[in-house]
Each structure stands twice: as structure tokens, then as C-alpha cells.
């Protein structure tokens, strides 16, 4: 059955792979599943056909036969459950890998998103200059804790898993801030992930969409 996902017709990140379709593309590449991408404009994302798939009018979505999913974390989890390559067979190791997915999305990502909101959606508010350092402190707390846990390991818990995929993609959004460079083991963790052939295929595919959109 064909897998179809949605992505921005013209991504605001200009093809840097920061939008959340990248997680889904990367997961599909890791498990070797072909997929089709339906590109959507911001206007189409607010229309009933898209809202039926994604009630919040966002990307990505995932369709396979009569299954339709939204939420990048749930989609990556579904892909990892259905296909070998992103979750260990050992039940305890599998549960820990899933825990890292939740940690990425539930614990590490929120302050990073807060920073994006403060900078881009609320950048003109008079309290932003005061608020940003507070958010950055919260991010640094998480990065420091994560850096301590990772130590000099290659991945968060044994082999590369969906937990690493989610964590790496969450952290990549911080790269333009320069903050990651303060944690050399996290910076190296991201570089290792970016060297994965599946990451590169996913990155190139989404970058090609942006390039084509600029004609
Ligand atoms: N919790 C949902 C999920 O994980 O799937 C969140 C989905 C989401 O935020 N989607 C964004 C979206 O559709 C795109 S990825 N936004 C449009 C809208 O809400 O109207 C977030 C994103 C956007 C832009 C950049 N960027 O420019 O760097 C990075 C990430």
C-alpha cells in the first residue's frame, strides 16, 4: 500500500530540514519504505480536506490505505512499530527507546518551541528581550542533563532507535542558536546522525522541494 505524507509546498525553513515532515521522511528512509509526498500550501492546510486529516491544520500527515494519522511523534512511532530498523526486539530495550521518543517530544522540545515562539511570533513584544534569557536557561538545563546522560555513548540507549531520531530532530532546531556548540558530545551526536544515509536521503528530498519551489 502506498504511503503518502504531507509537507509544506514552500517550507519557511528554506529547506533546512527543520519542519516536522523531515522526521517522518527520515523514519521511512531508515526502515526502507517508499513514500509519496503531497505538498500543501498554507491555504490548503486550512481547508476541510486537510483538516479532516489534521484537525489543527498542520503538516505532517500520514496516509496508508484506510489509515490516516497526524502528529509526527505518533507517525514515527507507527512506522517504527510496523517495520524493522527503529526499535529493538528486546521488549525492555524497546520500551526504553519509546521512552526516549516521549522524552524528546515531551521534555526537550517544549522549551525549544518556546524559544521559536518568543523569537519569531512575539519578537516585537516589549517583554521578549527579558523573556529570552529565561527560556535559554531552561533549554540549557535540558541540554546539560541530556549531555550528562549521553556521555560518550554513540546513541541514547544502545543501537540507534526512533528515540534518537526524534531527539536529534528536536535538537537540530536549536542549531542556529549556537547553543548546541556548548555541549560537544551533543554536537557530535547530531553530526553522527546526519551522517546516516537515511538522514541524507530524507534531507536531500525535502531540500529539493524547497529548491523547486524557488524556481
Ligand atoms: N505536534 C505536531 C506534530 O508533531 O506533528 C506539530 C506539527 C507542526 O507544528 N507543524 C507545523 C505546521 O504545520 C510545521 S513543522 N505549521 C503551520 C501551522 O501551524 O499553521 C514546525 C516548523 C515550522 C517551521 C520551521 N522553520 O521554519 O524552521 C520549523 C518547524
| Shape annotation | globular
Largest sheet: 4 strands, mixed
Structural class: alpha+beta
Low-confidence runs: none
Radius of gyration: 17 Å
Percent range for β-strand residues: 5-15%
Reported CATH architecture of the largest domain: Up-down Bundle
Record the SSE blueprint:
Blueprint: E1 3-8, H1 21-30, E2 36-40, H2 48-53, E3 61-64, E4 67-70, H3 72-82, H4 91-121, H5 128-150, H6 162-172, H7 184-194, H8 197-213
Parallel strand pairs: 1-2
Antiparallel strand pairs: 1-3, 3-4
The chain binds S-(P-nitrobenzyl)glutathione (GTB).
Question: What are the key terms here?
Answer:
56% helix; Glutaredoxin; 2 domains; 215 residues; Glutathione S-transferase Yfyf (Class Pi), Chain A, domain 2; 9% strand; alpha+beta; binds S-(P-nitrobenzyl)glutathione; four-stranded mixed sheet
Amino acid at each position: 500500500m502506498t504511503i503518502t505524507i504531507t509537507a509544506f509546498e514552500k517550507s519557511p525553513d528554506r529547506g533546512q530540514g527543520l519542519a516536522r515532515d523531515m522526521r517522518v521522511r527520515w523514519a521511512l528512509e531508515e526502515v526502507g519504505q517508499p513514500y509519496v509526498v503531497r505538498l500543501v500550501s498554507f491555504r490548503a492546510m486550512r481547508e476541510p480536506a486537510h483538516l479532516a486529516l489534521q484537525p489543527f491544520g498542520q503538516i505532517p500527515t500520514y496516509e496508508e490505505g484506510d489509515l490516516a494519522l497526524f502528529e509526527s511523534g505518533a507517525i514515527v512511532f507507527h512506522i517504527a512499530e510496523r517495520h524493522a530498523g527503529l526499535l529493538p526486539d528486546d521488549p525492555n530495550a524497546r520500551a526504553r527507546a519509546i521512552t526516549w521518543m516521549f522524552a524528546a517530544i515531551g521534555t526537550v522540545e517544549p522549551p525549544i518551541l518556546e524559544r521559536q515562539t518568543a523569537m519569531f511570533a512575539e519578537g516585537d513584544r516589549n517583554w521578549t528581550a527579558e523573556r529570552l534569557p529565561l527560556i535559554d536557561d531552561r533549554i540549557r538545563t535540558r541540554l546539560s542533563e541530556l549531555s550528562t546522560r549521553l556521555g560518550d555513548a554513540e546513541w541514547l540507549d544502545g543501537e540507534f532507535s526512533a528515540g534518537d531520531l526524534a531527539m536529534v530532530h528536536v535538537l537540530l532546531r536549536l542549531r542556529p542558536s549556537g547553543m548546541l556548540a556548548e555541549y560537544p558530545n551533543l554536537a557530535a551526536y547530531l553530526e553522527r546522525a546526519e551522517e546516516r544515509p537515511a538522514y541524507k536521503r530524507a534531507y536531500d528530498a525535502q531540500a529539493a522541494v524547497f529548491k523547486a519551489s524557488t524556481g
